[in-house]
């Protein structure tokens, strides 16, 4: 009797044993470990002293004198200014993307007018323009716009400095770059809306604005959740535009991603514990947004996102 035949016989004798299900569980366990081990390693590193990082394996938990919470305190002190700047930048830019993306998709989907296909193609082209292709024109454009001078009346406020004009530049840039993809997401959702409802409103004499405000917008709540989570995460983690416009982590307008890139670096080396603690702190707002809009996000994906 061959060995394969013997193994099958043993498996057949085990009550309730399903070989295919066992292999499936092993595969799932492998992928869970594949994705979670780096996260666990980063978390353990963030709680270790510099000596602990050097003397222990990365995924081992910090024990005894190797444990410290000081890395989190130091990282938060370094990133505090950047967190505020990122929030000031991300929330308005995301809301602008929602507003213009939703209205543009409404005009391109539920209203018939000549030339809308051409305009839709322009939006689609805007999605595929790579970031690197616009960095030089973007830098030249903002160097010609005297935005810092226009905002000078605000400098009487003690917490506003001329460098904060760069945050306004980032808000406009990120919103302009995000509107095409938001328009496409909203358009896919609007195509799934019942046409009879829109036609009935038109027969009742409702204007284009009224239909959007009273019918389309209230029905868009699930997609608003999807787009808000997606765009908030994109803008919060954006780095190239930030590096081009702000330039330095020492600037009063530097967002968290710019400060995080140099966190823990010094002439003596890299403080991996502080850097990992900073990475988790920087990711925390996006996790909170996912939790707050999780229900709308799931519903939006289910209904056409």
UniProtKB/TrEMBL annotation:
Q: Which domain of life is it from?
A: Archaea
Per UniProt, which keywords does this protein have?
Membrane, Transmembrane, Transmembrane helix, Transport
Main subcellular localization, coarse class?
membrane
* Membrane-topology descriptor: Multi-pass membrane protein
Task: Give every ABC transmembrane type-1 domain span.
Answer: 83-293
Keyword Membrane belongs to the record: yes
Q: What does the entry list under GO cellular component?
A: plasma membrane
Cellular localization per UniProt: Cell membrane; Membrane
A single GO BP: transmembrane transport
What parts of the sequence cross the membrane?
22-39, 88-111, 117-138, 215-233, 272-293
Family per similarity comment? Belongs to the binding-protein-dependent transport system permease family.
Protein's name in the database: Sugar ABC transporter permease
